Amino acid sequence: MQQFCSLMEQYPSIFVALSFVFAAVIGSFINVVIFRLPVMMKREWQQECNQFLEEYQPKAYQVLEQQQLLQPLDKFPERFNLIVPNSTCPKCKTAIKPWHNLPILGWLMLGGKCAACKQQISSRYPIFEFLNGALVALLAWHFGPTIQFALAAIVTFALVAMTGIDLDEMLLPDQLTLPFLWLGIIANYFGVFTELPSAVVGAIAGYLSLWSVFWLFKLLTGKEGMGYGDFKLMALFGAWLGWQMLPLIILLSSLVGAVIGISMILFKNMGRNNPIPFGPYIALAGWIAMLWGNDIVSWYLSTL
């Protein structure tokens, strides 16, 4: 491993290129996570609701069952997770061949259409694959072949998945936020990005910062301005980068969110009451802070 790292240090461009290819391949799996994880979660919630009705409201459950009013779980097979079944065309159900699953290239070879029925394939698949590859390539250029790069790449995979899910479902799954929050604490036990006390305080402060804003907004307006997943995502960045980076992340995410939100209202005729996921803005701001947070803070302090 040391020999490989030494070789990559000598040829940084090769390391960046390999990182892009590897991350683009992972991006193909991230597309699966973005689509399937919410389905798996909804199925689990529905099963729990049905079990609750059956156990605590048996008469109501029997009536619903007799009248066939129980919501069907979904259109997917009984065995449905991140691995099985194999990916198929949503229209003709033809299994996608391995070489058609090549990240970015597979979509380009098919001309963005199913090989069997010629149904249009969404361009979001190669976009997420390219995005994942580009982000990790930038990490490789910034950190080089180090433990910081490896851990930053892992959390980047999770952030891309969470961004896609939040855009689709307005949801940040605990299955992603909580394990990676703990991974940040573990990494900083060894001082990879910051000291352990800073990481612990950062996780607490990150959660409470948005939690406080949530309840203040709710008390003033009677409305919920954001979801609990946003609190946990901010806690995740506090655990990875320390409490010192939280003001920068909050500022950057608010600026990006305001610009995009106003643009959507002006150019897409969205109403002011239309919900907009805040998670992607936190993810982008936190990712920027992971690479250039210290430089940005130093530049700002130098201007005072």
Describe the protein's architecture and organization.
By secondary structure, the protein is an all-alpha fold. The chain has two domains: 2-109, no CATH class; 146-303, no CATH class. Helix content is 70%, strand content 0%. The longest helix has 45 residues, at 12-56. The chain starts with a helix and ends with a helix. 32% of the residues are buried. InterPro entries: Peptidase_A24A_bac, Prepilin_IV_endopep_pep, Prepilin_pept_A24_N, Prepilin_peptidase/N-MTase. Residues 21-143 form the Prepilin peptidase A24 N-terminal domain.
In summary, what is this structure?
Belongs to the peptidase A24 family. The protein is mainly α and 304 residues long.
Key features?
304 residues, mainly alpha, 2 domains, 70% helix, globular, transmembrane, cell membrane, multifunctional enzyme
Topology of helices and strands:
Layout: H1 2-10, H2 12-56, H3 58-66, H4 105-109, H5 124-143, H6 147-169, H7 174-189, H8 196-221, H9 228-241, H10 246-267, H11 279-303
Helix pairs in contact: 2-3, 2-5, 2-6, 5-6, 6-7, 6-11, 7-8, 7-9, 8-9, 9-11, 10-11
Form type: globular
| Class per helix and strand makeup | mainly alpha
What is the residue-mean pLDDT, rounded to a whole number? 87
How far apart the termini lie comes to 45 Å
Number of helices: 11
Estimate what percentage of residues fall within beta strands. Answer: under 5%
Q: Taking Cα atoms only, what radius of gyration do you get, to the nearest Å?
A: 22 Å
Largest sheet: none
User: Can you give the helix content as a percent range?
Assistant: over 70%
The total domain count is: 2
Per DSSP E runs of 2 or more residues, the count of β-strands stands at 0
Low-confidence stretches: none
The string of secondary-structure elements, in order, is HHHHHHHHHHH
